[in-house]
Amino acid sequence: MSDFDRRKFLKSAGAVAALGGLGVFGTGANRHAFAQTGAANELPRIIQKTIPSSGETIPAVGLGSWITFNVGNDIELRDQCADVMSAFFDAGGRMIDSSPMYGSAQDVIGYGLDKLGARDRVFSTDKVWTAGDGAEQIAETSDRWKVAEFDLLQVHNLLGINENLPLLFRMKDEGQLRYVGVTTSHGRRTEDLIAVMKNERLDFVQVTYNPIDRKVEDYLLPLAYDRGIAVIVNRPFRGGSLTERLEGQPLPEFASELEAKSWAQLILKYLIAYPAVTCPIPATTKPAHAAENMAAATGPLPDDKMREQIAAVIGVLV
Amino acid sequence: MTEWWDYGLADLLLFSPRVYYRLFETMNTTWGLVVASALIAGLIASGLALRHGFRGNRVILVLLALVWAWSGYGFLWQYYQPINWAVPYLLPAFGLQVVLFAIFAARPLPLRFGWRGDFSCYVGAALIAFAMIAYPFVGLMEGRELVQAELFGSAADPTALGTLGFVLLSRGTWRWVLLPVPLAWCMISAGTLWVMDQQIAYVMLVAVWVTVFCGWLDLKNGVTTKRLTEADIRDPAA
């Protein structure tokens, strides 16, 4: 793909309409084909997205742990985090993402998984973030989560990528890891990221994307789509500042067409609807918000025109 | 591609104000007696600093060594370290400050604390008063509960602020050695508080600036260039 024009890309993606388990991209709200989660009769029908490198599907909304899960040894706050995880799992969520950089977040996730007995429900996603001994850090991360193997490990912000990426590929080859990825945030190191995406067989890439920060639509997301790389979206609410600024503002009328009951859901639907996006990972300290975020992966999704409307409305309000 | 330069201050702060201030609540309720004792030690030291007693100089230095040791272990290591990966790198500085206080206390001629009546003394006394009396109530003004109060002797910020005041109230050619650690802490903490959108960050920065300014004034006025003699130490009127 030599020219990643966003509009052309969306049209072609809508025509293909296969990646991400999405059905039709027409006018107005999309009705999409569902791949239901496990015992789905009791759960709302959660939109599943496909990991291109394997064909495996995962729920279209995950759970981040940046800041929110770094609560130290405070048992009361750890229990609150476990409540968030419980609400997330109960609503059909699977992917939880963390990093060695996030203070005590890994320990808190391990605590929550223990408390909930949810190790078989989680799609475990973490990172390696060191220019030193990556294997040692991964072993420590594994101890903190109390999991033997991770589903996905990523090179955090491309740090030490020349050492850490070969390590992760080796782990994958040896069956100690299912997927390999790299991450950036805040639109940093784009050129480096593009080079890695072009030259390595990545399973996942993680980038910052939301209705305000849309630069990735120009090139990175189409490239990921073209290369068959699943995309995790960090900072969908700009670390909470986006939803805070929108708080109290009335939702646009078309939100009801999408069955979106909050700005958070509208933003997540905006992201999920993009064909290259696999899984936004909003973070929260409130169980109700975790459930609300998961509910964004149900019901109709916006088409291209409606996505532009969402971005325009939010752009005016913030 | 292993550069760290593209990390901003906000990227490195990975906890919320809610969790940060809960640390003080947990420490105050778990270690209430020790926290109160550390504050009382600070109040005793400040009382002594405004007098000229020969023995008081060593007592002040020992008390300051003790509160820095407690703040380093009690607050930084026990409570702050689990949420801030940078603490293990900062903790040795607290150890260094304890050792420096101990060395000054053990010297034949320790620093001399006392009221000189110059600008630096007023600033020093104001910093001590702010750190010990006003700082615990800053949280109340910002809507937090009193149980989350940051107290001198345990919480690192008021301890560093107050220490700047003690140093400004002292005389001695080597007193500047006691400034880098609390100054550096105030700078780091100002950055942390600024990222958390806490207005007290500006107070920390002003304290740093005014301490450096007073240090320069004292240098100019000979407060820190005149070598102390035993007579200076013993004579309350000197």
Overall pLDDT of chain B? 90
Percent helix of chain A: 25-40%
How many distinct helices of chain A? 11
Amino-to-carboxy terminus distance of chain A:
34 Å
> What spatial form of chain A do the alpha-carbon principal axes imply?
globular
Mind describing the biggest β-sheet of chain B? 2 strands, antiparallel
Biggest interface in this structure? A-B, 28 and 19 residues
Number of strands of chain B: 2
Overall strand count of chain A: 11
Globally, the shape of chain B reads globular
Structural class estimated from helices and strands of chain A: alpha/beta
Describe the protein.
The complex is a heterodimer of chains A (318) and B (238). Chain A is of the alpha/beta class and 318 residues long. Helix content of chain A is 38%, strand content 14%. In chain A, strands 4-5-6-7-8-9-10 form a 7-stranded parallel β-sheet. In chain A, a hairpin with a 6-residue loop joins strand 2 and strand 3 (57-59). Chain A is globular, with a radius of gyration of 18 Å. By secondary structure, chain B is an all-alpha fold. Chain B is 68% helix and 2% strand. Chain B has a two-stranded antiparallel ribbon. In chain B, helix 8 (180-195) packs antiparallel against helix 9 (200-221). The A-B interface holds A 66-68, 70-74, 77, 101-105, 107, 131, 157-162, 185-186, 188-189, 192, 285 and B 1-2, 4, 6-7, 11, 14-16, 18-19, 22-23, 26, 79, 82-85.
